[in-house]
Amino acid sequence: MDVGKAGGGGAPESAEARVSLAALCDDLLAETELLDDLVRPLDDAGWHTPTPAAGWTIRDQVVHLARSDEAARLSAVEPDAFMRWREEVRRDRDAVIARLSAEDRHKSGPEVLAWLHSARRQLVDAVCDLDPKQRVPWFGPDMTIVSSVTARIMETWAHGQDCFDALHVEHPSSNNLRHVALIGTLTFGNSFRAKGREVPDVRVRVELDAPDGGVWTFGSADATEIVRGTAEDFCLVVTQRRHVDDTDLVAEGHVTAEWLMIAQAYAGTGGPGRRPGQFPRRPRRPPRSTG
Hints:
Elements: H1 21-39, H2 44-47, H3 58-77, H4 79-91, H5 93-104, H6 109-127, E1 135-136, E2 143-144, H7 145-166, H8 177-186, H9 188-194, E3 204-209, E4 215-219, E5 225-230, H10 231-238, E6 250-252, H11 254-262
């Protein structure tokens, strides 16, 4: 499959050639500020608003991001300690989750938001001077520092989408979506493997209308299996925040049609995603002015 090769970790190993580590960290902090602007005004009831992810409130989404940032920093600066913790999780995941949930239960919304900002700043400060190609362990396959930071952008955007959906607020689009879209294309194989399916040996191309009016293209120019649509719709589908039937994505070919039904830009078996018809089909947004 020609859009790239990636393991179950979900982050693009070719990202080093596309963007600097400093620029990635800036994009991560910018995505954080979008989420901050949304949730900072919430009262206690607002923080406990259910999100489309079953059993998760807005507070839970922010807790997840903060704890994941701590894990990403640990994997970068203390990989042996991270791997010991990873083994503990693998031995008894339910017990670890129960313990962490008990530790976090007393934290208020403003406290978890402050935690996220602290964990994120510590992550950025820890990785900014590292070799972008340095490999670090993760819960899926090992990945580079650049891949790790890119994955944090994807996670922030995806979990942020759940919060925007919960509050019925439009999620602002930016060219940060390119990071999410790149991960989405490079995890083509992972999407099939996660469902126990054979990875199709075909050439695939993804052509996306960017928020600024440009076009992003991933994959082979001579591919016969093609996905076309907006970057936002594609990112919503590959992060399982929308069912493909609720978007304007067009799959040209049976392989891409199957892919969009099972796409996931992250490791693990994945959840049920969103149901068809759960969200209204959105009209296309006009390109964002760059003037």
